Amino acid sequence: MSRIGKAPISVPDGVTVEVSAGAVKVSSKQGELRQEIPDGIQVEVQDAAVAVTRSDDSRQQRSLHGLTRALVNNMVEGVTNGFMKELNIVGVGYRAQAKGNSSLELALGFSHSVKVEAPEGVTFDVPEPTIIKVSGIDKQLVGQVAADIRALKKPEPYKGKGIRYVGEHVIRKAGKSAK
């Protein structure tokens, strides 16, 4: 039995979990998320908990069991607290500027500024010109938007300039040595 898959998911007050044919819908006042359920995996709502079970012990069913439980747990966590990724911009003249909650304008050393639009369900916050906070209720979407922003100017190994996650360690290289 999957250790992750057999653990029940507690549902806090104000969150509703609905299971329909082949899908789970989790909603609260913050928003609503929907996830398809693979064949052979059953999701059941009992009292204030959600249980995920599998039909057999095949290799694929075992792997989908823990995955489905983790996805449903992330949906419950997202509509309850939300998710946030924080990015740090390092470099002279590199900065971010918020244009409302749904778009950013980045100066990253290019000859032009880079504009980033947030998809629906994701918001940007720029408390300082060198810090970007990406937040939303969908963990996968928040992570993908943060990765897309980081990909605009990855941290380079010689001076460390670029966009990185807060807490990310960039391995530095020694440059050329002068004789």
Structure description:
With 179 residues, this protein is α+β, with helices and mostly antiparallel strands. The protein folds into 2 domains: 9-80, Outer Surface Protein A, domain 3 (Alpha-Beta Complex), CATH 3.90.930; 83-165, Ribosomal protein L6 (Outer Surface Protein A, domain 3). It contains 2 helices and 13 strands, in the order E-E-E-E-E-E-H-E-E-E-E-E-E-H-E. It has helices at residues 59-80, 139-152; strands at residues 9-10, 16-20, 23-28, 31-36, 41-46, 49-54, 83-90, 95-98, 103-107, 114-117, 122-128, 131-136, 162-165. The strands form 4 sheets. It has a 4-stranded antiparallel β-sheet with strand order 11-12-7-13, with helices on one face. The chain has a 3-stranded antiparallel β-sheet with strand order 1-6-5. The protein is elongated, with a radius of gyration of 21 Å. The mean pLDDT is 92.
CATH superfamily caption of the largest domain? Ribosomal protein L6
Q: If you consult CATH, what is the topology of the largest domain? A: Outer Surface Protein A, domain 3
Shape: elongated
Question: What CATH architecture label of the largest domain applies?
Answer: Alpha-Beta Complex
| Count of individual helical segments | 2
Distance between the termini: 63 Å
Structure summary:
This protein has 179 residues and is of the alpha+beta class.
Key terms:
39% strand, Outer Surface Protein A, domain 3, 20% helix, alpha+beta, elongated
Secondary structure: elements and pairs:
Elements: E1 9-10, E2 16-20, E3 23-28, E4 31-36, E5 41-46, E6 49-54, H1 59-80, E7 83-90, E8 95-98, E9 103-107, E10 114-117, E11 122-128, E12 131-136, H2 139-152, E13 162-165
